[in-house]
Amino acid sequence: QAQLVESGGGLVQPGGSLRLSCVAYGFTFSSHAMNWYRQAPGKERELVAAITSAGDNTIYADSVRGRFTISRDNGKNTLYLQMNSLTAEDTAVYYCDAPRLTRGQGNQVTVSS
After folding, report:
1. Cβ neighbours of residue 109 under 8 Å, at least 6 residues apart?
2. For 54-63, how does the pLDDT look when each residue is reduced to its tens digit (9 = 90+)?
3. Are 81 and 73 a contacting pair, CB within 8 Å?
4. Taking Cα atoms as reference points, which of 75, 38, 35 lies closest to residue 57?
């Protein structure tokens, strides 16, 4: 059974950094492009970043480009999202996603002083 297990969220001050991790189980992780989404209260879900199966191409939402970095380690079946220079507008539940297959349970990221 395909499953994604996330970790790394929490509370951080404005300007701080966090790294989210997402470990894949039950499917061939290295064959799948992967996404990070987020959803803030009262807002629509937003695609934050995406990465190809080999990790050789990435895309970012305009709101995070230059601050966030998506990466993956196919040997460890793990997807990452490094988030720097965080602001209150980054507060949301973050989900990793294997398109048309499965999604993680969600991880709360709160940016507040």
Report:
1. 9, 10, 12, 18, 20, 38, 83, 86, 90, 91, 92, 93, 94
2. 999 999 999 9
3. no
4. 35
